[in-house]
Amino acid sequence: MSDDQSAGADIQKSSDNVSATGGEETQPQAGSVNTPKHDGQDVGGLERSQELTPPPLPPRPRLEVNGRPPTTGAGSFRLSKRASRPQLLSQATTAVSLADVHTQSRADFSSNPSSPASRIVSRKHSLSHFGKFRGNSDSGGDDSASLRSYAPTLDARLDGESLLGDVPEQEATPAWRALSAQLEHDDPFDNVLPDLDLFSLQMQHEFDEVCAVDAEGTNEEQTLGTWKAKLKHFFILSASGKPIYSRHGDDQLISHYIGVAQTIVSFYQGADDPLRSFTAGGTRFVMLSKGPLNLVAVSRLGESEAQLRTQLESLYMQILSTLTLPSMEKMFSARPSTDLRRPLEGTDVLLDGLADGFTRGSPSTLLSALECLRLRKTHRQTINDTLLKVRAPNLLYGLIVAAGRLVSVVRPKKHSLHPGDLHLIFNMLFEAGSIKAGGGENWIPLCLPGFNNTGYLYMYVSFFSTSEGPTNGSDERPSSAGEDDELAVVLISPNKEGFYELRKMRDELVEQLQDNGCMNVIKTAVRKRHAACSDIIPGTALRHFLYKSRGNVQFTMPSFEPYYHGLAARRKLMNLYSSMHESIHLKTAHLKVQHCTAQDAAALAWETPLFELYCVAGPQATKASLAHGANRIVQWIRREEERVFIIGGAVF
Amino acid sequence: MAARMQQGGRPGGGGARFAQFKLVLLGESAVGKSSLVLRFVKDQFDDYRESTIGAAFLTQTIALDEQTTVKFEIWDTAGQERYKSLAPMYYRNANCAVVVYDITQASSLDKAKSWVKELQRQANENIVICLAGNKLDLVTEQPDKRAVTTADAEAYAQEANLLFFETSAKTSENVKELFTAIARKLPIEQASQGRGARGAAGRPGGVDLGSRQEPGAQGGASGCNC
């Protein structure tokens, strides 16, 4: 209690500073807010009547001219510097180094050092090749039809934009037509009827298995139809064209398409001008070449190239996590035609888990940040102290994870945890069922490519349920009953033989956490789940928000309920976030604050060196009420910072 | 050795015997190792089970008779080829092993035979090995699915001096029997006595340098079950 008060005093002090410099400035002023209403930025406004709307304008120039008069822009910029606590940047981050933030969230840009201008040049170059290729493929039957409309969107200026904005109504996929149709209701987020519209239906069946084509091929057409109806595909193939992974469909079904992908990719590789992405109608294709592997993403969900590329990178990291880079390279250098499916056997669930997470749309992936369990500072401190006290000599990293959220982390001073690595671990724990369902303890060799892609670490995992009272005795591991109310202790060591050592640490940890009451604190916090937006900021117009603390590489958000119930509604919300994230992170954008309105939602994105904030309200919300809500969130975070984020963590 | 016993710590009075043994499951992927364990430990069965990642560690205690309790510490290993180099870590101190094959897949018996060979060469010389032909339920429904005859497998088991069962994790047929048979073959008396002799050193107050170093006996270091 006393601790809390002192924390409060601390915060009080910092907010005093703010008010001393002028409370006026804490509002993102309407004048500094960009309102790209008709330029295709408003992804929410999927429905675009052709008669009324002019052809999409190139967005960036308009924003630059209109949106950032230097004076007002600076106003909102200065605010952020004072409003938050800059010194946090220099503190130890929980887990993740600052460098990671940039490499992750800007993966696309860092991997592409060329300037926008040179990208345009190389695109034009590609375009001519593409024309040739298309000519050849026209004879290839109905598949070539899907390549039909690449040209209009191959404009680099539209690169970061959602495809949805560009696609004329007739060209849109049935799913998006349905989505648009739905938007004709006043407020689809308010009255989403999950079973009635096609998009929801498709989303619902997105993860269904495509049944195998039977021996006679009688159901081939139907199977192919199901396969083609998927909104998103991921393919991984070897440089020699062998299929390694496909999210949907078996080998027989995908072999043609793998062949086509291989032809396209190798054609451009042969010309020393690797193809990065192209679009066809409402579908975006993104290719990523990594050594002996080619990865392809095909999405009709309106994601940007950069976002899809990040997703492919993550799949690639999963493969490295199974094999390590040197051993994979050795396999291919010994035999270029190696069938990688054999060594990867059994990891489909992990790749599927990642892929489906991307398809559902996860804030964590979008922001390249982690979410923490909200705990009192004193409790978190006790947990950290306990972790340090029972730390096994060979421990590298220790994590307590509850319901997909981080409770605490213990790590050596000189090693931070890469967010990509943590994502792989979380995916393994919570998406792939085998560990949770096993009901035992697990000892898993894995490579954390962000830490070191050449060798294995060994991970001890023990799950226990948070639903009922304290676990009895250290010997019997309770079974996993609940779904996401799971608490996991994850201990990672470089020592292959370290199982019993880490098991002992786990026993001591659990025992001490039970003794000092923290176990119950954690369980209570997990059971509370996310607070609704209106509980965090009473009376706000906001329905949902994402707040990412850049220094801590962590984010926080309220519950999706009651406004975003179900897969489709959430996906649409994530699309809105994605498009704002994209426009704020484009190198050419220089946006600090973006306001967009659409028929279904009004949204605000606000970026400062310390945080990124995205908030969404109903379509009637005014700019002022959004700005007000945003400020209230920032104030709330300032007050709760040490509760919603892990600052520092347990470092040894 | 990993086997040990504790006396007087269990209800049942003075004559009770309690011994703990390390058991490892080996075999090709997808033959049903994890399903056997799940049936044995939790009496559950999932029709669809994802591949084990790495290895899972579970425990189960069975009562052989009124006086005798045996606790298995079970290492359920993943069958994929890439985990093969880790196997010695799991069978090194094992007292017993269950080598599983799928009676509808002839190749899985070959793999099982190579595991048996490896165990007989590299593991404890007294290791009790049980061969388990799993998925018996499949051939009960469709006899033509069987790819390994009972007679063939039994002959091999006899020749290699293994226990042998055909099991079904799904119907739980022979699962309990298999583990009980292993327990009966294990040197409980010896383990109890051996541990009893060392017991004094293991108790608080004594200094036990030997057993702490041995990974298999680590559980003992963290305290007994009382």
From TrEMBL, chain A:
Domain FUZ/MON1/HPS1 first Longin: 232-353
GO biological process: autophagy; protein targeting to vacuole; vesicle-mediated transport
FUZ/MON1/HPS1 second Longin domain segment(s): 394-510
Alphabetical list of InterPro entries matching this protein: FUZ/MON1/HPS1_longin_1 (IPR043972), FUZ/MON1/HPS1_longin_2 (IPR043971), FUZ/MON1/HPS1_longin_3 (IPR043970), Mon1 (IPR004353)
Subcellular location: Endosome, Multivesicular body membrane; Prevacuolar compartment membrane; Vacuole membrane
UniProt keywords, alphabetically: Autophagy, Endosome, Membrane, Protein transport, Transport, Vacuole
The protein's name in its UniProt record: Vacuolar fusion protein MON1
Source organism (scientific name): Salinomyces thailandicus
Automatic annotation (TrEMBL), chain B:
Gly residues composition-biased segments: 196-208, 217-226
Annotated Gene Ontology cellular component terms: endosome; plasma membrane
Alphabetical keyword list: Cell membrane, GTP-binding, Lipoprotein, Membrane, Nucleotide-binding, Prenylation, Protein transport, Transport
Signal sequence annotation: none
Family annotation (Gene3D superfamilies): P-loop containing nucleotide triphosphate hydrolases
Topology in the lipid bilayer: Lipid-anchor
Gene Ontology molecular functions: GTP binding; GTPase activity
Compartment(s) where it occurs, according to its Swiss-Prot or TrEMBL record: Cell membrane
Listed GO biological process terms: protein transport; vesicle organization; vesicle-mediated transport
Pfam families (alphabetical): Ras
Annotated stretches, region: Disordered: 193-226
Family statement drawn from the similarity comment of this UniProt entry: Belongs to the small GTPase superfamily. Rab family.
NCBIfam families: small_GTP (TIGR00231)
Record's protein name: GTP-binding protein ypt5
Organism for this UniProt entry: Salinomyces thailandicus
